[in-house]
Every structure is written in structure tokens, then in C-alpha cells.
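User: We ran a pulldown and think these components assemble together. Before we commit to crystallization trials, I'd like a predicted model of the whole complex to look at. Sequences follow.
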Amino acid sequence: MDEGSKIASADSIVLTGLGHVLGAPCDPRLFLRVRKNRKFMGLQDDLAVVAAGHALKSAGLADTALGERTGLYLAVGYIPFEHTDLDSLMEGSLSNGNLSMELFSTTGYNAINPLLTFRCLSNMPAFHISVNFDVQGPYFVTYPGIGQFYQALEQARAVLTAGEVDIALVGAVAAQRNFLVEHHHARLQPPVSAEVLADVAGCLVLETESHARERDATVRGRLLRHDLAYQPFNPFEHQPEFHEQFDGGELPHGELGPASLAVGLSLNPSGVLRHEAQTRDGFRVASQWELV
Amino acid sequence: MKQRVAITGMGVVSPIGNTVADFRDNLLAGVSGIGPITCFDPADLPTRIAGEVKWDGPILRDRKVTFALEAARQCMEDAGALFAGGGLSLGIGLELFSLDDMAAFRVNEQLPKSAEERMTFLQTPSDLTAHLISHRWKLTTPPMTQVSACAAGADALGAAHRLIARGERRWMLAGGSDSMVNPMGVGGFCKLTALSCRNDEPQKASRPFDRQRDGFVLGEGAAMLLLENWDDAQERGAVIHGEMIGSGNSFDAHGISEPHPEGRGACQAMRRALADAGLEPEQVDTINAHGTSTPKNDPVETAAIKTVLGEHARRIPISATKSMTGHLISAAGALEAVATVLCLQAGQAHPTLNLNDPDPECDLDYVPHQARPMDAQVALSNAFGFGGQNSSFIIRKNPGP
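Assistant: Here's a predicted model for the assembly, 693 residues in total across the polymer chains.
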């Protein structure tokens, strides 16, 4: 690949935890340390917290306050918005089929559940992970696809190598079976059917080998190499084609957005696994992992 | 070895000027960009004021896309001819959701025919901006899109800074763009009772650190900076506006809409930036505060600054750009980076407007009303996000040849 390529085989970064969740509903209550925040959580928050919780549990960190030496590197999918939320908003805002700001500002606006804002923001999954697992370290919150997940992975690798954190949670979440995300995929050329979109999240726990050894953690795998490249394109003219391949294991059918790699690793926790994708936003990514 | 990072380009679209020169003049003169909302009819919404960009030209349905492209254009022009090996790091706001389009869609359920209209109809994906910029300037390294809300612009700069400092990029176009001055944006924040309702006195509505503050004022706009390997900048004879010497971010891990009461995360972000810069707190000469004019942020930020800087905090000027521009959300950190560079260059701390009755809990020197001369070499800038994301960076004045 091009100059963006990276080889990460000789460093001492190891995978010590994996977790994923596939499909809704999913119940995060098992992992909530701050239960009063439950009312603020939308599906993408539930998914992100559950995947992170499973990953931390598999890393032996379920009951550990992670603190300042743990960073979060998270790729979040397109913003979810349910039809029912929009319906109540629109019902009170239309006059003869047209938007009336008079009505919106008096009736429609009042139909908005104030918690709705919290439940769809892209940075909220990061908030809920941070508060429930006490992550106080540095972060990188990006959007919206698998290319950006690789960027999160690269950021995590860099801070671990530099010794800026001891543990990096590298996660991805996509709540896609909702009106707004389905709308986005329907307008692509060619359109993407809602049927193939998944509600999904995955999370990896990465740390330096010496840190894993110090705390007697089980090493579950290694990132042997990863590559990341980009071809600029005009999104008003076309979208590049999407292609994804996962060798050495199986991925669930459908489009998993930014979470495909993390989910693939979590579902296939042994052997040499190779992931490749060409995305609709111009990214080409590839990685090779050895899982124990 | 850590590489030095020069700032060799800047571009601005803001409520107080759509060029760097106009922005600087108005910033130092203490001109408010807050007024009644004109880009849509706010009707009877509780808040009907904002810091709007005054824009006469063609504009895309999602205003922040146009703002970002213009700020990037200015920045690239300012930087001049660059070596190969650059990239983009962009803090960007929420996907625009159009209520007008939703109304139309409910009637006929048809998507527009043209690709441009289709891709912005009803909802505009936020990463579209990064692809348009990358395409326009043929940036072949993967663009970074950061969505950490009010910290996103600062985070975009921090990520770019670290890439160059590590020697992984020769230059980065970095900044932020946002506009939530639309029915869903203003309506959503009104529901959270986060906005000032001082509709009759728009220019007095954004009043960071003042006892009478009643919420923040939405602003909109974009700011981009060209961060470049110092040696490259010198080799090509670029004008170096300043040097980015440190950055750091952190989570509060506390509350969804309120900062940690002792500013734990804010302190951590500032300390990380200082450590990254290799500086002691006493070496900070001035601060560009996050200063939102909300009841919760301003005293906590004050406490955090005092915790990190100790008694030194009382000896330095601290300015709040949002008193003039409103809160540009995902672009705020980037616009305030430009403000920071301009103040260092001018040797002046810009004023904090409307600070008539200081909150007793906000007891530092916030440069009320008028700009003030300062002999500052090092400036710290803060950007703290809804959801407890905190980002700080440090800029040093270019000492010249």
C-alpha cells in the first residue's frame, strides 16, 4: 500500500482482551457503575458499553478502576435516529405538509424528549465507557467506518509504544437499524439494503507485553501488521465500492460498519486472521493477527 | 527524536470575520459577533440569538461544509507551496438534520436525483467535509475525522501535532468546522436549557466568568491551521506564525453534562499538554480559556487553572474568545488556536466581553472589556466537551530569525 502503510510486527504490543455484541436489544446493566446514567443511554451507548465490558472481562480487568493510564480509541458509526422520535417531532411541526417554524417552536420542539440529544451524539459512547470503566486517559473519538477504526488502532499503537498509556481500549460501535442510518445507506449508489445493516460493537484491549506480563495477563494475540491507505474522491460524484474479506475465520453476514474487525477477532479467537477492506469512503485497510 | 511543529498557515470563517485579518482586528477591538438568528426563522424558540457567520456567497445546505472549505482554502494559500507528505485532521460537528427535508420526505418519499442533493438531503454525513477537502487538495493520506464534540477542534490539532512531532507526517491541515445554528441544533440545546435566553441583548448574552451569565450562545464557523515540520518550514522559507509545542487530552469520567467538580479531567489535559511541551506551569504566560459562559463550566475551569498553575494563575491574563464569537462547538478549539496565535503575534491579550460583575468563584484576571498589552511567549488553550472530553494545547510565539 502507499505511504500510509505501517508495519507493527516487531513491537511489544499484545492483545489481552476481546469483546463484542451483535444485535439489539442489548442490556448494559451488568456493566454500569453509574446507574443513574442509564436513562441517557441509546442503543449505540448500550452496545459500546457491553462490548467494552466483555473485552475488559476477558482481559481480567473487569473490576479494575482503569484511571489515567488507560486510553480509549473509538470509532463510532453514523448517527442513529429512530422514526418514532422523528414522528412525534414532525407531527407537531407540520402545517399542510410543510414545516412550520411557528409550530415547531411551540409544539414540535416540546415533543422532543430532552434525553434524545444524549442518545444519538457521536461522543456519548465514549462518555459511557469512560464513566463506567473509569477511563481517564487520552482518547481519540472518530467516525464513521472501518477505515477510521484502523486509525483508532494506529493511534492506540502509537501511544502504547510511546509509553503514554499502559492499556488502550480500541473499540467500534454502529447502531444502524434505524431511520437515519438506513436513509443514508439507501441513497448510496448502488443503494445498500437496510436488511444487511447490523447493530453491533466490538472492543479490543491492547497493552504492552511488559505490562501484560507484570499483571499476569493472558496474551490472546498479536497484531502482526496493519496497513491503511486512502484515495481521495469527490463524494458528490461517486462513492468507491465496498469490499471486505476476513480470512482464517468467519464474519457474521451483513455490514458491521466500523466494528467488523473487532467483531471478527472476538468471534474467531485463534489462528492467523487476515482482514482486508475497501470502503465507500476511499479507505483501503488490511491487517494480520495471530490469536492464541 | 521529537520534531518541532511550526504553524505556517491559518484560515478563518467566523462570526467576527471571514479572513484572518478581519478576525484579528475585531478580536482585539472587542467586537461582538452575536445577534438575532437570521439564517432560519427561530419563531418562538426560547433562544433566538447566535453568533452567525455573515456569508453572502453560495452556500451548501450544510453550512459547516462551506465554512470548512473556505477556511482550508485560506489556510493553504497562506501556507504556500508545501512538500509532499501532508494530511488532514478535522474536528467536525454533528450530521446536519434538515426538518424541511423531513417534511418533504414524508409527503413524497422521493430522494433528489442529483448526487450532490441526494448526499445532503435530510441528513449530511459529517465525514463528507473531510473527503471534499482531501479531494480538492489531493491529500492522499487518510483524513482524520474527530467527533469529540466541543473538544473536537482542539483534538484535531492535537492529533496532527503528535503525528508531525513523531515524524509520521511532514505537514497537516488541521482544524474544525461546525454550525448548529439550525432548527434541530438550536431546538436541541434549548431543550437542554443550555443556551442563553438573553434575546433582547444579544451582544451581552455571552458573558464568560460573569455572575449574570445564563448559558452559552451558539456560534458557527471554521478555522484551519497548517502545522508543519519546523525544519521543512524553514527550508522552504515559510512564514512561521508560531509553534505548537504540546497537546494533551483526557476524560473526566464523571458527569454527562456537568464537569467534574474539581476539574479533574481539565487538570489532566492541561498537565499532559505541559508535559508534552516540556514546560513547568510557571512558564505559561497567558491562557485562552474554554470560557463558555455556562454556570457550570466557568468556575470549574477557574478552579482547574488554579490547581495546575498555582499562584501563578493569578499573575497571567486569561481571555475568553466565546464572549465575542459564541461557542463554535467542534470548531471552537481551532478558532481559539488562531486567536491564540494572533494575540501572541500582536503582544496583546484580547478582551473578555461583558465581564461586568465577576463571579466570586471566577477570580482570575480575565482581561475584561478591552485588549491589553502583554509580553507573552507561551500560551495555553483549553477546550472541554459535553460528556467530559478535555483537550488542551500549547503554542509558543515564533521568536523570529
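Chain B touches chain A through 74 residues (CB under 8 Å). That may be worth checking against your pulldown data before setting up trials.

User: Thanks, that helps.
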